[in-house]
Design a protein that fits this description.
This protein is mainly alpha-helical and 277 residues long. It contains 14 helices and no strands.
Amino acid sequence: MKLKLRNAWVCLALMGLHALAAAEVPAATAEALMHKSGIWSQLGDVAAQVKAGMAQASQDGSLPPDELKRLERIAEDAFAASRLRDSVLQALSRDVTPAQSAVALKWYDSPAGQKITAMEEAFSTGFDDMNRVMTDGNQALAKASPKRQSLLSQTVKASRAAEAMATMEINVTLGILQGLASAMPNPGKRATADLRKVFDAKKPQMVASNRGVALSMSALTYQSANDTLLEQYVKFLSSKSGAELTGSVMDALDQSLSKAAQRLGGAIPRAPGTTSL
């Protein structure tokens, strides 16, 4: 059975909306950024989101219940919050500059920043069914005024959400396959490299497709925000510091989730009932 995990990966990219080259910052500063941006909280939801994606993909009955439980246990360990947080913390401590952290903390400590973070955390916690999320998001988008739709489009563009979705989808998929290959007698490194070329060729199409997904998700995430608040958020994301911080956090999340995917793939063959992804 092929586990259609895309639903779980899509929402992970939205964590990059609250962005965190080359002086280091103290770990305490990087951790404060993670807490105040909501990343710390949202990384605690990842394992549950991955397991929800697995359960949704197995609704056709092709995966025995015992095997699903086994895969869920593996996912719980591979995407453990402590592991993801430690990985992101190390990357941000290394890559974020003092100037960037100062700008970010000023935004996150502001009333506007706190409201945006609360909305993003609530969306992450409630993300349990991709179909429901898209239905609700499409409805919210359809009700939005032309000005509101423009602001949402600017948010998606400034956050580079569609690009992040495509990148993470590719790297997480390849991470699982690399993990599987590493556990096999004859690792298929060439096959994985060939598959990356295929994905890279399709990436522009994936980005274009993900723009609509990101737009609907943003409409749902920021449904309670007024236009003025969204304008402030777009201004932050579009600033030089905001754009640099977005890049840093996207890279940190991508690295952390790719490593977790490799752990997931590597653990699958080590127990009875191996499942093909």
